Amino acid sequence: MIRGLYTAGAGMITQQRRQEMLTDNMANANTPGYKADQASMRAFPNQLIRAMGTDHLQRHGTTHVGELSTGVYMQERTPNFRQGDIYETFNTTDLALLQGVVPAGDNGQEGMLFYTVENGDGEVRYTRNGNFTVDGAGFLTTAQGNYVLDAAGERLNVGSENFTVTADGQVVNALTEQPVGQINVALVMDPDQLVKVGNGFLRYDGDGEIQTAIGNGGVTFQLQQGFLERSNVDAAQTVTQMMTALRNFEANQRVLQAYDRSLERTVNDIGRIG
């Protein structure tokens, strides 16, 4: 009976964490470039049940009864890097990154392309959110004030908002028609090593070097100025999953309450009769 309490409790905790993940997805349904998280559920190792001291089973040469599940847990939440739809904003500082042909890594998974930015601590972060702006010094930054980096890993100074961006990421001054820089597009061959750190940014925790897609003949991409990439959250599907998680939580809750009532009777009623 106590084992059943733990099993039902594990199910409740799992569904609560899944609900929190789905809530995060819904909250970012309108965040440009946001990648929805998906949950990986795992069962705790099953316990092998054997009968002890049962003459009938022992006479037939076996005491094996079966296996008992000991609960479930949410092992991890991983981003779904599927590209979202793009929409037009008519803002010259908005850039949508359209991924074309990208080679697969050693694990067979296709690599992903990202913008590279520098956070307030001088660390490199990656994002698909192209909702950029130009600060007072003429640097291209994110909405949070993080600097967008060029192909050399330096802060990209575009001078003003009067610039155009070619499909391959080259920035051209709209007044002088002279190139002023190259927006870097990073190629991450193992996206599973990326960790969300807030504000649409990702940190790379892998061992390999992050390559640039600029000048890489095996990679095709396109930057579209005046457009943004939508979040890839499917709102209708997410609401359905939230309802399912709630129902599963309530089912485990009812099981837990049933065990609680049984224990109460065991302690109070049976104990009093004895």
Automatic annotation (TrEMBL):
Q: Where in the cell is it found?
A: Bacterial flagellum basal body
Q: What is this protein called?
A: Flagellar hook-basal body protein
Flagellar basal body rod protein N-terminal domain boundaries:
5-35
User: Has UniProt tagged this entry with the keyword Repeat?
Assistant: no
Source organism (scientific name)? Evansella alkalicola
The chain positions of domain Flagellar basal-body/hook protein C-terminal read 224-267
Any Pfam family from its record, for instance, is LlgE_F_G_D1
Transport listed as a keyword: no
**SUPFAM superfamilies with a match to the protein in the record:** Flagellar hook protein flgE
Main location group = other
Describe the family membership recorded for this protein in Swiss-Prot or TrEMBL: Belongs to the flagella basal body rod proteins family.
Q: Which InterPro entries match?
A: Flag_bb_rod_N, Flagellar_basal_body_rod_CS, Flagellar_FlgE/F/G, Flg_bb/hook_C_dom, FlgE/F/G-like, LlgE_F_G-like_D1
